[in-house]
Amino acid sequence: MTKSDKATAIHRTLEELYPEVPVPLDHTDPYTLLVSVLLSAQCTDVRVNQVTPALWALTDRPEVMKTIPAEDIREIIKPCGLSPTKSRAIKELSKIIDEEHGGRVPQSFAELERLPGVGHKTASVVMSQAFGVPAFPVDTHIHRLAYRWALSTGKNVVQTERDLKRLFPREQWNRLHLQIIFFGREYCPARGHRMRDCPICSVHGRKSLLKREKG
């Protein structure tokens, strides 16, 4: 089986398991999605969804958020971790969005990645989930699964994103990255994972990892 054939088979399995793929972060517009994705760095989506209602009660508009002291934002988002850095980034990016982009989240990778606290992965999530632009956000979970499935060398997330984009059609990217995330949570966790019990790893897993597990 070629790597392309394997990718097709994996996609077919994911389509069967996850015909519906809701965006895991609760949001109402591109701005609230952007802030939620920023908060999700080194934090679970579940925790972010528990924290953001209190933040939105404060405000969910950039023109107001920019006026709120970073300390007040920090107090609300503490459970998400890295709160000093994240609170400053939220305040600063809100100011830029309001004053330089007319209060609207920019719709380009370059402009998004210039915002404080926004890297390529965060920009990719916003572009794909808020604006429908084909993107393949690769977090540590997708990076791990792509290596386990021998779809990428696993050297770094940049290489993994490049490999996955080559293997899967552009029109599949936005949906597929969510399907892989859901699959990883349910069947393919980082710890305590048995590849031979996994619907995808058992069939398409990296041979060296399967051999090590058996041995």
From TrEMBL:
GO molecular function: class I DNA-(apurinic or apyrimidinic site) endonuclease activity
Pfam families: HHH (PF00633), HhH-GPD (PF00730)
Domain (HhH-GPD) ranges: 39-186
Annotated InterPro entries: DNA_glycosylase, Endonuclease-III-like_CS2, HhH-GPD_domain, HhH_base_excis_C, HhH_motif, Nth
EC number, UniProt record: 4.2.99.18
Domain of life, source organism: Bacteria
Catalytic activity: 2'-deoxyribonucleotide-(2'-deoxyribose 5'-phosphate)-2'-deoxyribonucleotide-DNA = a 3'-end 2'-deoxyribonucleotide-(2,3-dehydro-2,3-deoxyribose 5'-phosphate)-DNA + a 5'-end 5'-phospho-2'-deoxyribonucleoside-DNA + H(+)
Protein name: Endonuclease III
Gene: nth_3
